[in-house]
Design a protein that fits this description.
The chain is an alpha/beta fold. Helices cover 37% and strands 12% of the residues. The chain folds into 2 domains: 45-274, P-loop containing nucleotide triphosphate hydrolases (Rossmann fold); 282-658, Phosphoglycerate mutase-like (Rossmann fold, 3-Layer(aba) Sandwich). It is built from 23 helices and 15 strands. The chain starts with 18 loop residues before the first helix and ends in a 6-residue tail after the last strand. 37% of the residues are buried. It binds adenosine-5'-triphosphate (ATP) and 6-O-phosphono-beta-D-fructofuranose. Residues 57, 59-66, 87, 158, 190, 192, 201, 204-205, 248, 251, 277, 535, 664 line the site of adenosine-5'-triphosphate.
Length: 664
Amino acid sequence: MSGSDQPGSGGEKPATDSYYAKGSAELATESALTLLKIQHRLRLTKRSDRLVIVLVGLPGRGKSFVARKLQNFLTWRGTECKVFNVGKYRREVAIGSCDSNFFDSKNEAAIEARQKAASLAMEDMLRWLDNNEGSGTATPSSGALRKAKDRIGIFDATNSTKSRRNWILEQCTCRVKRAGKPIGVVFVESICDDKDLLRANYLTKVNNSPDYDGMTSEEALADIEERCRKYEETYETLDEDSQSYIKIFNLSSKILLNHIYGRMAKSIVPALMAWNIGTRPVFICRAGMTMNDNERSMLNLGMSRSENLGEHGRTFRDKLFNFMKDECLGFMSRRRKAAFSPDMNTGTSISGTMNRGFGSSSDLAAFLKDEDSDEETSILNSEHVEEEYIGCDGVTPLPFPCYIMSSTMPRARQTVEWEDLPYDVHMLSNLNPLDKGDFTGRELEDIGEEHPDWYTQLVSDPFYTRFPGGECYGDLTSRLESVVVDIEQQVGPVLVVSHVSVLQVMVAYFRDTPVENCTSIALPMNTVLKFTPAKGGSWQESQHCLMPSTHGSQSKLCQLSDMHPPDHTCDTPMMQSPNGHGPMVKLEMSKKFSNSPPSALARGLTPPPIWGDHRVISVSDHHAQSENADADRGLSRRGATEGRNTPAMTCRDEVTIRDSGIVS
Ligand SMILES: Nc1ncnc2c1ncn2[C@@H]1O[C@H](COP(=O)(O)OP(=O)(O)OP(=O)(O)O)[C@@H](O)[C@H]1O
Ligand SMILES: O=P(O)(O)OC[C@H]1O[C@](O)(CO)[C@@H](O)[C@@H]1O
């Protein structure tokens, strides 16, 4: 190309016909103006591994809900995150009652107490942010993959005036006091003006907050409404152009971002947009068993990733269909009844909420698949309502509504291939099994013999040890982030079919347990885990065993963090959980491994590994016993309350693992 042919060289004018397809081909230039803009953005994205998220909003606007969801999400993603709730400090410093008078802007003594509470919370938060103790550090043994973690403090109070927010900025970013300890500050304001929603929120608060202990519901409601009026007198919304803020209006119907460029700040936006306060079940299960699972286990063969479902797997697929149908139709029916019957506390129903920011009655009727919403009584009275959900071909009726996600592995996809029903299955490689790189298809015990050093590292740090040329568990959180956000966003039932390693990481999210410990989470085959949202933002869990395992030992339900299951349910060696709870379960080693020359195992690296999709290792009686014992201790069995007090699970049995109530 000659000089004069170069775009922008002043020669012949470049062809303009492709301008709208490709844009200008002229090389980008920087003027003083663009430099200024870039520099400004640079200032806003200053590298800092410390961030403070400051909640802003009147009482009952979901600030603590958002704080908890953020903490769960950010901790799961590998950040250290802690909520500092000023209300908790206020209850400690306030002398006497904290009724609505305490929040009067003319009450000097109370103002002082409120500021003291905020200062104490701020001091604790800064101390925690500055302290590196407990934060992960680079260790040679973990192949330097484990790096120091980012820390995020969440400052949960109304923070309802500009002067309060300027004080927070001063405390966190003062050049003198905070020299060498940079912190980014992002404000997140929740705005809600829907009267019915607010009344429901206040009721939740009244029933759960210690502020209203000893008051009747009527007294408490009147008090919280009066508290809000007092706050409203001085409330100032976020509008300072120089600050970084996110404003959420009426449950994310609108989101406004200002100066959200920082690496951590911008990463919370999709999650903030996804969270909703509705309910819907999320089901997760492992792909059904493949053709050769039994034969392979006998012949000691590895597994190919592209195997199809075997007979046992197809039976599971059919049982899964029936289970999902019952669950999803039951859920839709309960939802419809709840929507049409007036709420006992707020007096609202679909008819009451129409045309007030929630869309029209026809929108809601369509959402609930009931075009004749006038016939509320017939719907309320009928046990079974014939539904019509249309498949992705646009014509075929589906028996139940469900948002289905599967990995791209044939066995996962086939687990939800139900008699040619055109369910729109979202196949995502994000849900594919942990990539074991050079070790794909090989048994851990063989690898342990051939690569004892790598194996030793895996045993000591199963979460961060990367398979050569492949992934480690830590990598899975990155590729699962968008999946988790997608699930959070759904307003109807969700089913995820994937594989043990991926589901272990996902379950850690729903359980809000340390993701680094997820490698010891048990995921029995042929079992569906169901997660349902609790009002406070956490998830309630139950497990549903749809059929027995073929491997002699029945899949038992067990407490994830503590147990190593008898079935092939984990992807890495089992180890004592770092927080110390739960016994290290001993497994009998396979013959081949126990005859091997001194290796990782002989050097004390017990117990021997179980590898998710690979050969089954037999389990000692000791293990089976301790598993039962712990299952009895750790689980609240619905069966037991119904008089079935047997520790062994039957198929299609149900166990509630955790009932997380409202935290406020
Ligand atoms: N974005 C939102 N907008 C409105 N309400 C929400 C939102 N998110 C959650 N909620 C609901 O708000 C209710 C009250 O939540 P929460 O206790 O978190 O409020 P709060 O703002 O922290 O109140 P307070 O300031 O009195 O402590 C909950 O029942 C929750 O379901
Ligand atoms: O000090 P501020 O900003 O008013 O916020 C603290 C208050 O926020 C609340 O969470 C809102 O009611 C109170 O429990 C707490 O005392």
